[in-house]
Structures are given as structure tokens and as C-alpha cells.
Design a protein that fits this description.
The complex is a heterodimer of chains A (about 775) and B (about 150). Chain A is an all-alpha fold and about 775 residues long. Chain A has 31 helices and two strands. Helix content of chain A is about 75%, strand content about 0%. The radius of gyration of chain B is 18 Å and the shape is globular. Classes of the chains: A mainly alpha (about 775), B mainly alpha (about 150).
Chain lengths: ~775, ~150
């Protein structure tokens, strides 16, 4: 390629948007609503920097958590660059569009800051090669989208949608994390060392697959990653959050839900394709993708809102991409990558057009709109290019990538036979609906103008230029697909391909089966269009069945969680301190014991009590005193017996040659006694009768806690690292030369582990401040 | 608990406890003791005074300090609060000094002084500064908690 620069600029590209996001408040104060142009400039700078990287393939990394071998590692290749260029390029247009669209809105600082941070996280996902960094950016996109979808904070529907998107996508992200950990574990036996580096894993895909299969982790990892990708990319049955997310401002919809965030799942699937590609992979992703493509295309037909139609259509096209990557034949990857580009090029302008229509006509209801070409001629032209691309009409851009999917589906059906023939059949069936809803969208601009539609203004340039630019690029790709393939797309396909294959795209010259499939899809859609209202009503009737709607299941699950916790909380947190303690101690013990059981540790062999008679005597006294504490008849007696217990422990320390500990124990015991006496003055003499139920419960809890502590000591002191006495010996040998003190304990505290001590005294200071704060606040509450 | 016996005992015992606590603190590097133990012991001494006389003890002992309306603003409590803040500053500040000499945060060193009158040989450890911080934080922190809780 012509340009080439240091791959390290990738770091700059990822950091720049976050930096800009931090500066948005200051910028907004200075330039007001024109902050959008600043955002566009930042996005353009990122785009330019990324463009200089075209043609390079490199990995750069800086250490991040060296102890865990986690690095902030960025990898540049065609697939990453395609995604990053889309995010920053469309980002620049969306920022420009926002200046016009968000004119006069409140909360612009938050809006632009979140949008910039969002773009940064998407760039981070695209370029990250370290699984931990990738996961962090992945979840960051969910958090930013939460802020953006919920932009209208005073609107309940907006909050509902934002929360739903957050729960689904962040929850899915956790599946991804576990899947990544499975890859991490497998890398240990496949690559020699355990690593989070995706690049290293992709270099040895066969070894990784073998290691995963050997550990029995292949299918689990595949499923976990699929759940994560499906949640992010709105695959069935997790597609329901995407139409809800249309509560977001339209530029956000265009950016998040057509160009970037929802494609993150697709991106990951494409990225992992060479690593995990197998027959299970094909079965899972091809089926998932085609099911999504079909179901959401059918639902799009039933939509009554322009943005709802586009949202379902987005989910449908994401299904197409997932299905493409699912097919393990070369055409599959080509369909996935090429359609990712094409979809962004036609769907982003369609969203922006929907925004223009809503802005200028004042409604988004499909039934109230029509014949807009007289009022909005330029917008109509943009829509023709984009909508026909979405429908897959030749020679518009969507046609070529859909043709590649048909070829992949046909090839797989032909090779496997039997049930595999369902793949091409379903693909054509879904495409019929794609044509149907695309034509319906186009009809907003043609046909008769409804009576009720008022005057429609021409949109300002800031609203019109961004979709026009995108539609122009889409038109160029449509007219000269091979040019795009040779220039960029072919290179972007390489990292996702399992085997090398020369990519071609163009109008068909002979009548092959895939061409017939295209003819059937377009013809079917065109023939069914006159019956659109009937089809729509049928789909609506079907979709109104509650049990068939994932959204209903989501609501039911959430309501169940709500009422469940409302019932649980009064039992766990009833305002009585002893109940809290019971639950905390019980839960801690249960977790610790479960951990020991899961780790399969065994109790060390019993080899006699290795302590002297005096120690045994002291300990016996201590145990007796402990029992006495429990049955003490009054507060004073209880406090005094506790002190005896403390003194016994101090004596125990003396006998085991730990004078420092003994001294501390004695002094603390004295102080504790003083405090107790101070408090006792205020406590009524009444001691209360013991009820059998709580007493038994407390006794049981004490036994469990005691047993857990006992086991913990046994397990943790059995095999200290380095073997035997080495730690103790190290400190005794180094105390004088290293710290200049003969008191080993003190030298450890202040010389060797001074940082720990600093932490401890900070805790004391925080405790004091906390007590002050609590008392002051409580006082304030009483007086006001 | 403000009995005559208690008050008299406290007057006698408190200075002794304080002396012991300081000696514990100073000898800590070579013998049992150190900032933490010394601090807790000093806290005990002050707690004894506090229990015998209440927060009014400076006035009982002849100092003229205006009593505050609320316990948080009492000059004594404010002094406790400043004590633990001072301790934190000393501990962290002392830890920062090694950075000037290109050593890691909290590095410690020591020198041994010879031919000192009476003592003969004295070891000066930089860790003592850090220990002083620990001492002050423990005294200030515990007394703050004690006085605020005790005033309830």
C-alpha cells in the first residue's frame, strides 16, 4: 500500500476519543452546541490515523499487569481496520449530524462525552488483541450505550430500554469472559505458556482446538462465546433489546445499532472463526444466524414505526453476517465481511433518513407517511440507493454480499445434502421478507401523500450531508464491487478466512443456482408486495402471542426477581444486628467450605500433637473460659471472662516465643476491657432469658464458624510456598543486615512489609473518620 | 466510674503507662515493642484519664479550654483527629523521602552511632519515623473513636 506508519499510532487512536470525552465539558463551555464538530474532528483524526495503517499487519503491546501476563496489546490487520475505519468514519458523520439533530436539546455534554467514549471503546474492541483488554472494551461499549440509549432520562420508556440493553449485553459479556478464560486455560497446553494474547492463539489454531477438545472445553467455550456474541449482536432469542433501544436519539441509533456496537458480536465471531471453525461451529452459527435472519425479517414486516422496522431489519442482517461466518466454506467469510461493510453503508443512511423524516414530518408512524419525494427529493434519492441495497437488488451494494451468502449456503447444502438443504431454502425465505420490508420503507417516499401529513420542511445541510456521503459510498461499492474487493475488502477477509481463496464480486454472467436463489427472493418479494397489509396483519397476530415474545419473558423474569428479592430482603436484613451477623458468617463459611470442597483439598495426616504440656493446659483453660463466656450470668461477668480468654491467648503466645504478640494481646485486651466498662455503664442490668430456638441456631453457627476457621488454618499452613520454614528463616536471617533491628516482628512490620503497615494504619484512620461521619450524620438526622 | 479511688489511681498510673509506652515505642526495633503496641498502650493511658474525668479533664487539671456544644467540635476531639492525620502525613511523608534518592517508596535504612555518652552505641533507624507515624495514627484514631462513641 501507499501509506505506512508506525503501528504504535493505534494506541493514539484508542486513547484519543477517551481524552476528548474527558475534555467535552470544557469544550462545551467554550463552543456550545458546536461541540459536535469537535467530536467529528476527533473522529476524523482517528479515521486518518487508521487510514495510514492500511496494508500493515502488526502487533504492538505495552505491559499492563505483568504478574498475570496481561498486556495492553493492539493488533492491526484488515478485519480490525475495516471495523475501526467504519466506527470512526461513520462516527465523524454522526457527530456532524448530531449538531443539527440535537439542536436545543438538554444534556449535550453527557451526550457527546458518552458518544466519544463509545467510539473509543469500539475502536478498542476492534484493535485489542489481548483478551482481558478486549473484554474491558467490550463491556465499556455496553456501559456507554446504556448512557446513550437512556439519554432522555425523564422518559420511563427510555430508562426501560437502556436498562434492558444493559442487562442483556453486559450479561452476555460475562459469558464471553468465561469463554475467554477457557481459551486461556487451553493456551497453556497448546502454546506452552498460558497467555491472554489472541494473536498468539490465532497463530496455532489447530493446537488450540486440540487442546480445547482434550480438556473437554471446546463445545462449552463455543457456546459461551456464542451467547456473548448473540447478546451483543441481537441474535434470536436475545434480539428483543434492539427494537427497544430505538428509544435512543436517532443519531445514536444510526451509530450504535447499525454501524458499530451491535456488530461487535459479529466482529468477534469473525475474529474467532479461524480459531474455532469446525463442524460444531457451522451447525451453531449457521443455524443461529439463519434463524435470526428469518424471524426478525418477518417481525420487521409487522413494524408500525419507521425505526422499529429498521431495528428488526438490523437484527436480520446481523443474522445474515453471523450465518456467513458460520459457514466454514470460503464464501462464508466473504459474505460476512463484505456484508458488514455494506450493511453499515446502507443502514446508517437509512437511520439518518428516518431521523430526517421524524424531524421534518413530525411522525415516525409508517401508516401516516407516504409520497415524501416531493417534499424531500434529495432524501428520497438517498433512500432509493440505500433501501435497494438493503433489499439486495442488483446493482446495489447489498446484492453482492447476499449473493455470497447464497453461494455459501448452496455449497454447504450441496456438499452435505439431506437436512443441510434447509440452509439455502431458509436463506431465500428470509430474503423474500427482506425485499418486502425494504420496498415498504421505500414507499414512504412514493405513492400517495396521506391527507393528515402537514407541511414538511427541507432538512438543513448538517442533517443531509452525512447520509448523502454514506449513500454515495454505497453507490460506488454497488457500481464497482470488484474495485472495493481488490482495494480493501479482500484484505479484510484474510484474517477471518480458514483457507486462502481469491475473492470475486460482480454481476452474475451465467445462470447458476445462487443466481436463481436471488431471482426467487426478489421475485417473491415483489409478487408478495401487493398483499403487504395481509402479511403484516398475519405476522402481528402471531407476534401478539405472549409466550412467543422474548420481551414478555424478560419482563416476567425481571418482575420475578423483583418480587423475590422483596421477599428475601426482610428475612436477611431485618434491622437486627444478630440477623446480619448470622447471614454474613453463614454465607462466608458456606463459600469457604464449598471452595475447599471444589478444590479437592484433603486434611493432612494426623501425626500427634506436637506441643508441650503447658501449652495444652493453657489451651484447655482457654476453651473452658470460652464456654464460661457463653453462659455468664451478667454483663460484667461476661466481659471479665472474655478478658481471661484474652490473657490465656497472651500466655500461649509467650510460651510459643512470640513476646511481641503477647504484649500486643495484653495491651489490646486491657483497652478492650476499658471500652467495655465504659459501654456497660449505659447498658441496662437486665440480661434477658435465652430462648431455645435462637440459642440452638447460635450454637450451630458457632460450631460451623469454628470448624471453618480450624480447617482454614489446617489447609493454609500445611504447605507454605518454598517449603517448610524458608519464609521464617529468610526473615530471621535478614532482619539485622537488612533492617538493622533484632526484633524480627517489628522489622517485618516497618522494613520489609512497610506498605502493609501503611495500609493498616490507613484503615484505622478511615475507621475513625467513618465513626465521626456516622455520628455527625445521625445527629443531623435527629435534629432536622 | 468517676470515684475518688479511680481518679487518684489514674493520676499515679497514667504517667507510668505513658513512659512505658514511649520506651516500648523506642526499643521496638530490637526488643518487643514498636509503634503499634506503644500507641495502643498510650491510648489506654488516655482512656483511663477519660474514664475517670470525662472529656473535661483538661479543665479539671487546670487548663482553660472552652467546652464545645457538640462532641465533634470539642477541642480535645479535634486534637485527636489532628493526631491521626499528622501520623498519616509522617508515615507517608517519611516513605516518600527515599524516592528523592531513587529508592522505592518506603525504603528504610539505618546508621549506628558509636561513642555516645552514657549509651555507648546507638542505632538510628529511619524506620523510627514510620513507626512514629503508626504510633500517632493508632493513638489519634482509637481515641477519636473512643471519645465520640463514649460521649453517647
Amino acid at each position: 500500500m501507499v501509506f505506512s506508519s508506525e503501528p504504535a499510532v493505534a494506541f493514539l487512536v484508542v486513547c484519543l476519543p477517551f481524552l476528548a470525552a474527558a475534555l467535552v465539558p470544557a469544550v462545551h463551555r467554550a463552543v456550545g452546541e458546536r461541540t459536535g464538530y469537535v467530536g467529528a474532528a476527533v473522529a476524523l483524526v482517528c479515521f486518518g490515523l487508521l487510514a495510514t495503517l492500511v496494508g500493515t499487519e502488526a502487533t504492538v503491546s505495552v505491559p499492563w499487569i505483568p504478574a498475570l501476563d496481561v498486556a495492553f496489546e493492539l493488533h492491526v490487520d484488515g478485519w480490525a481496520l475495516l471495523f475501526a475505519l467504519l466506527a470512526s468514519g461513520i462516527g465523524a458523520l454522526v457527530f456532524t449530524y448530531s449538531v443539527g439533530y440535537m439542536h436545543g436539546e438538554r444534556g449535550l455534554v453527557r451526550y457527546y462525552a458518552a458518544l466519544l467514549a463509545f467510539m473509543g471503546s469500539i475502536l478498542g474492541v476492534a484493535l485489542s488483541a489481548d483478551l482481558i483488554a478486549l473484554f474491558l472494551f467490550w463491556e465499556l461499549t455496553s456501559v456507554c450505550s446504556f448512557l446513550l440509549i437512556g439519554h432522555h432520562t425523564e422518559d420511563a420508556a427510555s430508562r426501560y430500554a437502556a436498562r434492558m440493553a444493559m442487562i442483556v449485553t453486559v450479561g452476555g459479556g460475562l459469558f464471553v469472559l468465561v469463554g475467554f478464560l477457557a481459551l486461556f486455560v487451553a493456551s497453556g497446553s497448546a502454546l506452552g505458556t498460558e497467555t491472554f494474547s489472541l494473536v498468539a492463539m490465532l497463530e496455532e489454531p489447530d493446537a488450540m482446538r486440540a487442546a480445547l477438545r482434550e480438556a473437554g472445553l471446546f463445545v462449552p467455550a463455543l457456546l459461551l462465546l456464542a451467547v456473548g456474541a448473540a447478546s451483543k449482536s441481537a441474535q434470536v432469542p436475545l434480539h428483543f433489546w434492539l427494537p427497544n433501544a430505538m428509544e435512543a436519539p436517532t443519531p445514536v441509533s444510526a451509530f450504535l445499532h447499525s454501524a458499530t456496537m451491535v456488530k461487535v458480536g459479529v466482529y468477534l465471531v469473525g475474529r474467532l472463526r479461524p480459531l474455532l471453525g469446525s463442524s460444531e461451529w457451522m451447525l451453531l452459527f449457521a443455524t443461529l444466524g439463519l434463524a435470526t435472519m428469518t424471524i426478525t425479517a418477518v417481525l420487521a414486516v409487522a413494524a408500525s414505526d419507521v425505526k422499529e422496522l429498521l431495528a428488526y431489519s438490523t437484527a436480520s442482517h446481523l443474522g445474515l453476517m453471523i450465518a456467513g461466518f458460520g459457514f466454514t466454506v470460503p464464501y462464508g467469510a466473504e459474505a460476512g465481511v463484505f456484508h458488514l461493510l455494506n450493511h453499515a453503508l446502507f443502514k446508517a443512511p437509512l437511520f439518518l433518513v428516518a431521523g430526517i423524516v421524524a424531524h421534518e414530518a413530525g411522525t415516525r408512524r409508517i401508516d401516516e407517511l407516504g409520497g415524501l419525494r416531493h417534499d424531500l427529493p434529495v432524501t428520497a434519492l438517498i433512500t432509493v440507493v440505500a433501501a435497494l441495497g438493503m433489499a439486495g437488488f442488483p446493482p446495489f451494494n447489498g446484492f453482492y454480499s447476499k449473493e455470497l451468502l447464497f453461494e455459501a449456503a448452496y455449497e454447504v447444502g450441496h456438499a452435505a445434502g439431506g437436512l443441510a438443504w434447509l440452509y439455502p431454502v431458509v436463506a431465500v425465505f428470509a430474503s423474500v421478507f427482506t425485499v418486502l420490508y425494504s420496498l415498504r420503507f421505500l414507499a414512504l417516499f412514493f405513492g400517495t401523500r396521506p391527507e393528515g401529513l402537514g407541511t414538511v420542511h427541507r432538512p438543513p445541510a448538517t442533517l443531509l450531508v452525512p447520509p448523502a456521503v454514506l449513500a454515495a459510498v454505497a453507490a460506488v461499492v454497488g457500481i464497482a464491487p470488484q474495485f472495493a474487493v481488490d482495494g480493501f475488502v479482500g484484505w479484510a477477509v484474510e484474517p477471518t478466512a480458514i483457507e486462502a481463496h481469491e475473492m470475486h464480486a460482480g454481476l452474475p454472467t451465467s445462470l447458476s443456482p445462487p443466481v436463481l436463489m436471488s431471482v426467487a427472493a426478489i421475485g417473491g418479494g415483489a409478487l408478495a408486495y401487493p398483499f403487504y397489509a395481509g402479511v403484516r396483519d398475519a405476522v402481528r397476530a402471531l407476534a401478539s402471542v405472549r409466550a412467543l415474545r422474548p420481551n414478555w419473558w424478560y419482563d416476567v423474569a425481571l418482575a420475578g426477581l423483583d418480587s423475590g428479592s422483596a421477599r428475601l430482603i426482610p428475612a436477611v436484613q431485618n434491622g437486627l444486628l444478630r440477623t446480619y451477623v448470622t447471614w454474613v458468617l453463614g454465607a462466608t463459611c458456606a463459600l469457604a467450605l464449598a471452595g475447599y470442597a471444589a478444590a479437592g483439598v484433603s486434611i493432612p495426616a494426623y501425626d500427634g500433637v506436637g506441643v508441650s504440656l503447658p501449652i495444652v493446659l493453657i489451651l484447655v483453660v482457654a476453651v473452658l473460659v470460652a464456654v464460661a463466656v457463653a453462659v455468664a450470668p451478667s454483663h460484667i461477668a461476661g466481659v471479665l471472662t472474655v478478658s481471661i480468654l484474652g490473657v490465656m491467648i497472651a500466655v500461649f503466645y509467650v510460651l510459643t516465643s512470640a513476646p511481641d504478640l503477647a504484649l500486643t494481646q495484653l495491651v489490646v485486651e486491657t483497652l478492650a476491657l476499658l471500652v467495655f466498662l465504659l459501654v456497660l455503664e449505659e447498658i441496662p442490668e437486665f440480661y434477658g432469658d435465652i430462648e431455645t430456638g435462637p440459642a440452638l441456631r447460635d450454637a450451630g453457627l458457632s460450631l460451623v464458624v469454628g470448624a471453618t476457621v480450624f480447617l482454614t488454618v489446617l489447609f493454609t499452613t500445611r504447605s507454605p510456598p518454598g517449603g517448610g520454614e524458608s519464609i521464617a528463616r529468610y526473615f530471621t536471617e535478614h532482619a539485622v543486615p537488612g533492617g538493622g533491628g533484632t526484633n524480627v516482628v517489628n522489622v517485618i512490620l516497618v522494613d520489609f512489609r512497610g506498605f502493609d503497615t501503611l495500609g493498616e494504619i490507613t484503615v484505622i484512620a478511615i475507621a475513625a473518620v467513618a465513626v465521626l461521619a456516622l455520628m455527625t450524620m445521625r445527629d443531623g438526622g435527629e435534629t432536622t | 466510674m468517676t470515684t475518688v479511688i479511680m481518679r487518684t489511681t489514674a493520676r499515679v498510673v497514667v504517667p507510668i503507662i505513658l513512659i512505658v509506652s514511649i520506651s516500648l515505642f523506642l526499643q521496638g526495633h530490637n526488643l518487643p515493642g514498636g509503634g503499634f503496641i506503644g500507641g495502643v498502650l498510650a491510648t489506654t493511658a488516655f482512656a483511663l484519664v477519660y474514664i475517670s474525668y470525662g472529656l473535661d479533664f483538661p479543665r479539671v487539671l487546670g487548663h482553660e479550654i472552652e467546652p464545645a456544644e457538640r462532641v465533634f467540635e470539642d477541642p480535645i476531639v479535634v486534637a485527636y483527629r489532628r493526631t491521626f492525620l499528622l501520623g498519616l502525613v509522617i508515615a507517608i511523608g517519611g516513605g516518600l523521602v527515599p524516592i528523592l534518592f531513587d529508592l522505592p517508596f518506603l525504603s528504610q535504612t539505618y546508621v549506628i552511632l558509636h561513642d555516645v555518652p552514657i549509651y555507648g552505641e546507638i542505632e538510628l533507624a529511619s524506620a523510627l519515623v514510620f513507626d512514629l507515624g503508626v504510633f500517632l495514627v493508632v493513638v489519634g484514631g482509637l481515641l477519636t473513636v473512643l471519645s465520640v462513641v463514649g460521649a453517647e
